[in-house]
Amino acid sequence: MRRRSLVNRVAGVGLIAALGTTASLRADELAAAPPHERSAKVIVDAIAHGPSVDARLEEIRRRIQGNLAYPPLARWHDVAGAAVVEFEVTDEGRTRGVRLAQSSGTTLLDNAAEHAVTSVTGLPVVHGRLSIPIRFELTGGE
Amino acid sequence: MVALPSRCRTGRKARPWLARACFSIVLASLCAPSGGKADELSAPADATAQPTPPTDQTDQNATPPPQTPPPAASPPHSVGEATITATRASRTVLDTPGNVTVIDRATIEQSGVRDLPELLRREAGIFVTNTTSGPTGYDVEARGFANGSGGGSSMLVLVDGRRTNEPSTSVTDWALIDLDDIDRVEIVRGPTSALYGDNAVGGTIQIFTRGREGKPQFDSHTVYGGYGKIGGSRHTVEQSLHAGGTDGPLTASLFADYDSSNDYRDRAEFRSRDVETNFRYVFTDRIALSVSGGYQDYQSQIPGALTSAQIQPCTAAEIISGTSCGLGPQAADPSLNQNFDDATVRHASMTLEVTPVENLLITFSPYTWDKHDTSASGDSTFVFSGDFDQQANGLNTQAQVDAPLFALRSRFIFGTDLRRDDASLNTNLSVLGMPSTPETSRSSRETWALYAQEELHLTDDLLLSVGLRYDEASDNIEQQTVFPGQPQNFFQRPSEWSPHGALTYRIVEPASVYVSYARAFRFPSLLEVAGVFGENPLLVPQTSDNYEAGFKWRSQSVTAGLALYLMEVHNEIIFDSNVQEFGGLGGENVNIERTRHRGIEASLSVRPWDCLELYGSYTLDDARIVFDPLTGLDGSRVPITPVHRGTAGFVLKLPYDFDIGMNANIVGSRYLANDFANSLPKLPKFAVYDLVAGFRPMAFSERLRLQVTFAIRNLFNRQYDEFGGRHTFVPLQPTPNDVGFYPSPQRYFVVGVTIRARP
């Protein structure tokens, strides 16, 4: 009964997570569900004890941001824009299934956004499909 | 009842007196959006997950709808936004120590003009004349250098960085610059020789063609225009196609244009074809290669000048009585029936960009360009015909470094320009009463230049710009001439230093002031040195010292600019028909020892509401000969450039994607070309009004867009002569028949239809 209850709760988490309101969930509650019953679309904390899901997502965002580099040619040509990249996190803390979900309209920025996600390491493990909008901004303009 | 957009509401709140006025109510109603169709199309479904690119990177040709990912049952979870910020590489208008204007694609499309010089007429400081009423007759100058004579230009024109000033004349052929292929135009008034060298004296116009990165797009632009009634014999038909887009690392574009027109004057037919292509391949985020090429040809007739008596149309009484009368302003010079210029141009260029380290950009740009002209021109006293072959090959190399200097933000630019110009002229000059004189001339000019420029931010608000350039040319002339005393072969090596220094201070956030000094030059063109007409191998380079101060304001609702300049010009090159040649007739290219150009350029654009733009400009150009022992002229005004001129206009956006605008171009009186003594009656002042109306629905669908522009030029059918001059081969005291005028177009209409499609 407890197991069934957890699955129900996990499904509920999926719905809530999709709405972007996971702040109240505990990672250890989600981790108890066996992997085969986890939904790929549901964000599940795979570690029994550790930071909350939100903290892990923020750490992923922070690490990708740290891995970003402004493409030199794009800067020289005043090219700015924003792209959206989708990915998943492996158990080793790397990314897989990286896909450009929304182009910035410029190859240089798209490539830089994809590269920042593909090459990042040391991510906290979170299962499920994630996305990150990456914005390339220029200062000093009008 | 339509709701007011927020800007209108703000404006009404801030100006209660205006809100009480009926005009405000009417205008505010016109400001109302037409149902928000555009917003609905462009607004992303989820603003947090689909960030909108900044406006400076959006395709100005269209507002592309966001690439919405396919709907999924459960969308991926966003981890939040990552942002990286870098310093913009380009200098802003406010930080540029000069009077600068940028014309974007949207402005070009809204204007409804046919040629770029028509758009440049509206700019403060720029003076445009046309002697044919068609695309081949334009002359564009600034700061008093439109003197109406000579074979050279003090205006540098660059297309994608390639110099268009031709080797033989140093003048730009504006018939070869197609408005439909232009993405952006940057105008810098005043000298930029410290960066670009030759010809950059009165101003520099940089043209950037279309072909930027973006989604695949196809444009068809059709223009029909006419004088008098629709379907009349004098009409313009132009069709252009533009296709381009990005697929992975490759961006490609193709442009084709066909133009066929019978312009305002008789014998003013113009036919042209143009094909241009651009490819850009991004190898890595540090290396990119661009390759472009094109082919153009045109056949044009030249209607020539009319006397004032010829311009007057016959009255009914004169026709009935059979008395002698005029021809009317649309007639061509009756004494000639063969004035024409046919040209073929091919060009190719490549630019390799490399950033070996993050803050260093190195560019290599080799190019080749050649043109063949067959032409004949003259008046009732002479005919000059010939074949011209010109070729230009060059390599521009530039390095830009963004690195702190003395812990201050800095940019250092270093570059070299190598160029070889060749001109081959086979000509024949037939002067009334004299034997025909065939001549051949082979001339070449090899130029090399080194330049360096430093931009140092002394504080966040204070920018110091200094630069220096050295140009050296080697001219080789070989010619066969029947005139005694003219050298057959000669060699010369002109050289010039061009220093530049400026301070720009941001006084408040949207405003800056600047002071600058710049030295500029132009070498005598090959045709001025060794052509057939007025040639003078003793010409030396024209140089100038330019002192300038200016103010700029750029906010969302107000754009303003004010520049005051003083230019001391040494050895200004002018064709002077007072210098006797051919036994008392004719003239010669000469160096005027000292001229002084000074003036004011003021412009203002105000957007009190989003739907309304009011603009205007005023230009004062006082260009005088200060001292010239050769001609004895002292204090005379330089011809053709008016002392006063201005523009005024508005653009009003109406509901349902309509807009309407009016532009007035007001030009003061000015002396006739060749009238350096200022002894002849002036060309009268004129004011011409243009009306433009547009229907520009943002989109019928995400993939199809339509734009219709209707314009009436010279709305009040004013008959005027933009250009006129004393004929060259006439006595020093000419009769009225020795003065020619080039009648400008009276009222005509232009309809343009643009269809833009995305696959």
- Report the span from N to C terminus of chain A: 63 Å
| Percentage of residues in DSSP E strands of chain B | over 45%
Largest sheet of chain B: 22 strands, antiparallel, barrel
Q: How many β-strand stretches of chain A?
A: 5
Into which percent range does the helicity of residues of chain B fall?
Answer: under 10%
Q: Helical proportion of chain A?
A: 25-40%
Largest sheet of chain A: 3 strands, antiparallel
C-alpha geometry of chain A: elongated
Question: How large is the radius of gyration of chain B?
Answer: 27 Å
Outline type of chain B: globular
Low-confidence stretches of chain B: 1-30, 32-72
Stretches of chain A where pLDDT falls below 50 for ≥5 residues?
1-48
Mean pLDDT of chain B: 84
Outline the structure in words.
The complex is a heterodimer of chains A (142) and B (759). Chain A is an alpha+beta fold and 142 residues long. In chain A, 37% of the residues lie in helices and 22% in strands. Chain A has helices at 2-18, 27-31, 53-66, 72-76, 107-118, and strands at residues 44-45, 81-89, 95-102, 126-127, 130-139. The longest helix of chain A has 17 residues, at 2-18. Chain B has ten helices and 34 strands. Chain B is globular. Mean pLDDT of chain B is 84; it is low at 1-30 and 32-72. At the A-B interface, helix 1, helix 3, helix 4, strand 2 and helix 5 of A face strand 1 and strand 2 of B. Strand 5 of chain A pairs parallel with strand 2 of chain B.
